Every structure is written in structure tokens, then in C-alpha cells.
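Reader question, answered in our methods column.
A reader sent in the components of a multi-part assembly and asked whether the whole thing could be modeled at once rather than chain by chain. We filled in our standard form and ran it. Here is what they sent:
COMPLEX SIZE: two components
ENTRIES:
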Amino acid sequence: MTGRLTFDAIVVGAGPAGVAAALTMARGGLNVIIIERGRFAGAKNLFGGVFYTHALADVLPDYWERKPPFERPVTEQGYWMLSPDSAIRVMHKSERYLKEPADAYTVLRARFDPWFAEQAVAAGALLITRTTVTRLLKDERGRVIGVDTDRPEGQVYAPIVIIAEGVNNLLTQQAGLIASDLPPKYVALAVKEYINLPAKELQTRFGLSGPREGVAIDVFGDVTLGLPGTGFIYTDQSGISIGVGMLLDEFVTHRLRPYEVLERFKRHPVVRPYLEGGEVREYGAHLIPEMGYDRMPKLAGDGVMVAGDAAGMVDALHREGTNLAITAGKMAGETALAAHQAGDFSAAFLSQYRRKLEGTFVLQDMKQYRRMTDFLESSPQFMGTYVNLLNEAALRYFTAHGIPKRTMEHEILKMVRERRSFTGVAWDMLKLMRAMRG
Amino acid sequence: MHAVVAIKQVPDTSNVRIDPETGTLIREGVPAIVNPYDIHAVEAAVQLKERVGGGQVTVITMGPPKAAEALLECVEQGADRAILISDRKFGGADTLATSYVLARAIEVINAELPVDIIFFGKQAIDGDTAQVGPGVATRLNIPLITYAVAIEEFDLAARRAVVHRRVEQGIEVLETTLPVLLTVEKEIAPVRHAPLPRLIAAARYQPEVWTATSPVPFDPQQIGLKGSPTVVGKAYTPAPRSGGEVISVAALGLDAVVARAMAVIEQAHIRNLQPVTGVVS
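And here is the structure of the entire assembly that came back:
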């Protein structure tokens, strides 16, 4: 063996956080290696969802010219609130969504991640795939000085390691940044299918005028049997991403099988017609860390920083995560550049990474919605009772039975009172406002 | 020691599905891999190089630009040089045209640095013809050993090697002069987990690209569709064989069963031979 393999920085994981960090550092002139365990960047990924472009534009201002593999711009979005046999659908469509590059696109990450990783490679980063980082290498004082991998002669050294390992945060634990595995109470499990449909057919069903229009729908209520969690339907280029996400805890407590919940969702009378005749091409499940602001790991230690899912950077309420990861990756990359300039890789110096993040939406949003997960779990009526109530009320409101309208209004109010008292409603609204305000 | 390995990038058939309407392979979205036998061929070449204490392993492939990925995987496994023979003019080649291009490329490589041994996988899992390796040996006019499972001796000075090859009855042990062309079974060498420094070397490596005219010209009459007399008449899934006969030794006794079996075999044999004699006469 000839000498140590040494780089200026090591990035573990070629997801959005890792690639954004590597790209930032490579452009700053550092010699960077990204180590990814999948066959290619994105190979381990399942995400089919909405991607917000603002964070990408920050890292890669000319991203549009580099032809990112987006599926469709999101030109219509909103909520479906399902009761067992009905749905209230609140959708927002605007001409202002039609301008491209758009604010949001539907994306299949198995296509997007390889493209994003290519941009980091083009900037000079070295991408090594099919290689798993097995542990952090530390010096006698406990400072991180590199990583070991599952390859022969697999040790790599660098004064700085950025952990972007995703939700299975083994290295984050090893670095001493977080105490233990995430409790099931704070991890969501999302199951998802990709259903193939010809683009023309898809556009007809969703009322889209062409390939440059797309829909993103978040679904509440009966989709999760009234339990905290959401469903989603997103239109891809020639297919639909459909799935359900619920806290792991809920699956366990209520003895639900994830694929059964998804099957049930797909069979819902309002949902089924959109999927008819489509061919399921992909099925899978993935964990989403919803630990929230208060249980996030420490973001930096001696010679090490953590970003993305591994750090719990997810805003579940607004289905955001990828953009948080990219922004955090960029901040970690910038901090690494500053550390190299100062020749200081101590936890004290690297703590400016967190301070930078506090100035952005990443930590501000996470802080604001810090109580959201707990709130929804303690107030199941929002996903259950209220959604059903709204559907019942709508049914009364929109049908004519030959009864006076005044009587109908009384019936609706009576229904509300029976299922949840007025004081209960008032109390719930107060709690909701507090949870939203943070 | 200079070894040349010819490889092919193929669709990962463990992931391939058949289009029920047309009966053809759906290649869209199917990951491409190095033909499984070929990666063992690369490994065999690298291990031989280690065994004789040095040398060079050159990997070549004919294919679209994307086939460069397959070459890089070979560099990870230890290949020193990789050449991608890629040009639209090579497209549509059958095994005859492919063997011409590879043989010609190996001649050029041999002129730069004499080649001692050439490796092929025993067959590609997408076409399953097992014709290109033998075709190249014929064109180069060198000894050919198919289904090789071990290289027992390899003596560069004496220009000879002893190679084991799989035959139906067992193992055939053959002595050959060098250079020799082997088509190999997977047993020839288990594929090792490539060391990290090799992965890094491969990530920085750029395969050479040879076109139909550069750095050397190929005969335009012998490449691509023009050089390919094979025509695919029809592709279909044959109906599964039906029936068969179970003869019970317990019920009939051994002699009766053997006699019955022999009668069936004889009949089948005669039926199979008929068209052949027809052609000969």
C-alpha cells in the first residue's frame, strides 16, 4: 500500500445534502470525495414528490441551463380531505404557476439525484459509489479524522467529514452528535407506488393542458384512517406517485400494515378513477425523520458536521425536506471552506454552521413547527372527526331534500355539537394556532 | 505478460421483462451491467498478471458511448488500459462483424505490445451465441480453448500454458502454445471486492475511444449492418415441452424399464437425425 488516501473533505452520502456540500466545497477549490453506498446516487432513494427550486438556485444559479430531470412543474396544488366515501377538494390553480423555471416541480429522486451528483463531479468532486462507510476514524483526542469503508484498503482521511447519511443515522450516533436511534414516535414511514400512465391520459384525468403542467395533492382524513399522517398524489411526466406517510408508532399501535393502508387509499371511490388502467412500476417504503427541532442532533463536532435527514431536517407540515437538505449542505460546505482557510476544524469553529442555518428558513421553520408532531398526535380529531364532519356538512349543503335551508343549517350545527362540542372546537382551534405559531 | 480481455455491456437480465404484446425484451429502464462471465474474465487476467509478477491487462469493448461505464468497472477490478470501440458505423453488427472488429483491434494492440493471452466470457447473457470469442480466435489464427475453468500452468518463457476446460463428461486438460484465446466459465476466478484505491483510480480514468476510422481504419465492408449477414427471421418463446413418460422401476422391474427407455431414445434419435441426412444427401 502506498501512503494514506487523503482529501480535503469527505462527504458521506450522495443525496441532496451531501451533493450540495460537495458542490460548494469543490467550487471553493477543495479536493472532495463523496462516498455513496448505492449503485449510483439516488439508487437508494424512493422519493417521488415536490421539489422546491429556490435552494437549488442558491447552490447552482445556472441549474436551469443544465437541464435538471424534473417531471412536471406544479401548476395546481392543494388538499383533498377524505371521508370514507367522499372528498372535499381545495385546489389552487394560477396562471402565475405557469412561468418557468417554476417554484416547484414534481421529481423522481432516482432520476434527479444522479443528475445533481453529476454537477458536483463536473465541479471537481470525486464520486465513489457501491461503497459503504462503516465507521468514523478518530484520533487519540476523539476528533474525527476520516472514515473507514467496506472496501479493502478502504480508509480515507480528511480534516473534515460531512455526514449526509440519511435517516439511518449510525455515523451521527458514532460521532456523538445524537444519543440514540430515533424513537418510533418521531419517525414516519412512507409507502409509495409509482404508477405508469401515458402522458396524454394522465393529462386528461387531471385536467392538465400539456406536459408543462402538473398537480400536487396532499390528502388528509380517511387516507390514514383518520390518524395523524398524510397521503399524497403527484403527477410525474407519464405516471403518478401515490403514497401514504404515518408515524411508525401509529402503524404499530393500530396494527396497520403500510401496504394495506396504501391499497385502501388507492381503492377510495374518489381516488380510484385516476389510477385505473395504470401499471404499478415500483413499490417501496422509506423512513422520514420527524424528530422536530427539539430532538435534532448537535450539528457539529471536532472535524465533523451533519446535514439533511440525518440531522432531522424535515418540515413535515409543508412536505419539505429536500430543499432544507440542499441549503444545509451548502452551509456545511461553506463552513468547511472557512475552516480550511482558518486551519481550524474544531467543534467551536464548526459551530458557525449552526449559526448560519439559524439565519435561514431551515432552522426557523423547524423551530416554528417544533410542536407539530406532538400536537397532531394529541389531537386526532383534526384528521378524523373534523374531516368527516366537513364532508357530511358538504353533503347536506349541496343536496336538496325539500327541506328549508334554515333547518339544514341547524342540522349541520347539531352534527358539529354532537361530534365535538363547541367549546371543544374552540379549544382545538386555539391549540392549532399555538402549534402553528411555534 | 500482456493480456487482452474483450467484454460486453448487457442489460441486467435478472431485471428484464418481456413485453407481452410483442414478445421482445423491454430494455427501457433496465440497468446495464458488465456481462457476468466477462467480469470473471477480467478477474482471471488480473490474477494471472499478479501470478507472473507483473504485466498489463487491456480491456476492450465494442458498444455505444454508455459502454464506457462497463470499462470503468473493469478498471476498478484491476485493468490497466481500457479501449471503447464506438461509432455509429459499428451499429447493427452480428457476431461475424463483431469478431472482425475485435480481432482487428487486438492486432493493432498486439503491434504496440505483443499479446500473450486473450480472454472472453463464455457467452453474453443477452445473445447467448458464444460465437464471438471463437470467431476472433479463428480470425487471429491462434489456439482457442472454450469453457476454461483454470489455468494450471502459464510459462511465458517457454510460450506454453496448461488450461482446464469444462466438458460434459468432466474436465479436459489441454496444453497450448501462446498466444491463446480462452472463453471462460465463472469458476476461472472469483470476483474480488475491488479495493478503494482502484475505485478512485477508475473514477479518474478516461477510456480511449476508437472510431471506425481512428486511430486505425476498419474495413467498412466488414463492419456494422453491412458486414452482418445474419438476419433474425423471427423471435418467439417456444412452447414448453409437453408430457414425458414416467416409468416405474418398482412396478416393471429394471430390465423392462431400461428396454423401454432405450426404445424411446432410439426413436427420438432417428427423428432428430432425419433433417441432417436430408441436407447431406
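What stands out: Residues 322-342 of chain A form the longest helix (21 residues). The first strand of chain A starts at residue 5 and ends at 6.
Send us your own complexes using the same form.
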